[in-house]
Amino acid sequence: MSVAKEGIPFILIGAVVAGGTFALANSRRSFLLWLLAFLFTVIALWVAYFFRDPERTGPRGDKVVIAPADGRIVLITEVDEPTFIHGRALRISIFMNVFNVHVNRYPVDGTVRYVHYNPGKFLNAAVEKSSLENEQMSVGLESGPFRILVRQIAGLVARRIVTYSKDGDVVKQGERFGLIRFGSRVDVFVPTNSTVKVKIGDTTMSGTSVLAELP
Question: Which pTM was predicted?
Answer without folding.
Answer: 0.83
